[in-house]
Design goal:
Strand content: 15-25%
Number of helices: 7
Oligomer: single chain
Number of strands: 10
Shape: rod-shaped
Largest sheet: 4 strands, antiparallel
Radius of gyration: 40 Å
Helix content: 40-55%
Order of helices and strands: EHHEEEEEEEEHHHEHH
Distance between the termini: 99 Å
């Protein structure tokens, strides 16, 4: 079912007519009923005006800003009013209110296995708005609850498609390193699920992402080890460059070293630069060849 515009007119003039008809009809009925020679025709007219006034009062509807009224007439959907104000529609109709405001849904912290089978905790915020009141009212049961359930289902499915992190190959998408891409994929998949409810997504964002407590400590040690190895590689590369520059500088200044002294110097410089502790100087008073 698709949303359509209901037939309605301004309710201010109709309200005035209903009040006048109700008061006039009640006055005619009371005056004729208490008179010495009551007229049945006038009493009938008065009662008709009172009934007409009551029917007109049942046709008024007030629409607040950023709200819509879904109008049904004895079970038949006749349209939706989205313009705020006082309006008059068919009498004896039912008017259901649907909010058109932009709303947030914060999912719970869901425990999911990522693409590598590691248990992770993930949560997201979903920003949505109703754009088709007919679908939201008649095609699903409680569209707010529908959004919650479908959001959690989509979050679980997306989280299982990507690893939390990649330690060997950095070219793939990960939940931690590619939050924007993962959020865009979540938006696309969830929008397909919510089209049936007449809901439009404005934004999806990952708000919580962490390893589950049972493996968090082990994964933290793994990340620390990888960071230490990467840092050591950079330190070694820099140390080799510094030693090479030192040897070249000595040669440029006319200081020649044989192979054994070069090896000893390289060893001392590498230990001094690479070591994570301050070097302890040792003065050698002897000779390498003694």
């Amino acid at each position: 079912m698709r949303e359509k515009r209901a037939l309605y007119v301004s309710g201010y003039l109709g309200l005035l007519v209903a009040i006048v008809a109700g008061i006039g009809g009640a006055a005619l009925t009371i005056v004729q009923a208490t008179s010495d020679s009551p007229s049945g025709i006038i009493i009938t007219v008065g009662l008709t005006l009172v009934i007409l006034s009551l029917l007109m009062l049942s046709s008024f509807v007030i629409v607040q800003p950023n709200e819509a009224k879904v109008i049904t007439f004895f079970g038949t959907y006749i349209g939706t009013i989205t313009e705020s104000g006082l309006w008059m529609v068919l009498p004896l109709t039912s008017k259901a209110t649907v909010s058109l405001k932009v709303r947030n849904f914060n999912s719970q912290k869901l425990k999911v296995n990522d693409a590598e089978g590691n248990p992770v905790e993930i949560g997201a915020v979903i920003v949505f708005k109703v754009v088709d009141t007919a679908k939201a009212s008649f095609d699903v049961d409680q569209y707010e609850r529908f959004v919650e359930i479908q959001s959690e289902t989509a979050i679980r499915h997306i989280a299982a498609q990507y690893p939390y992190d990649i330690f060997e190959d950095a070219s793939g998408l990960t939940l931690r390193g590619n939050a924007d891409e993962v959020a865009a994929e979540l938006l696309r998949e969830l929008q397909e699920r919510l089209d049936v409810a007449g809901v439009e997504l404005r934004e999806t964002r990952i708000t919580h992402l962490a390893y589950s407590p049972e493996i968090a400590s082990a994964m933290l040690q793994r990340q620390q080890a990888i960071a230490i190895v990467a840092a050591r590689q950079k330190i070694v590369e820099g140390a080799v460059g510094m030693v090479d520059a030192a040897l070249r500088k000595l040669e440029e200044n006319g200081i020649e070293l044989d192979a054994e002294r070069r090896a000893a110097m390289v060893n001392n410089l590498m230990v001094s630069i690479v070591s994570d502790r301050a070097a302890q100087p040792v003065i050698n008073t002897g000779s390498l060849y003694s």
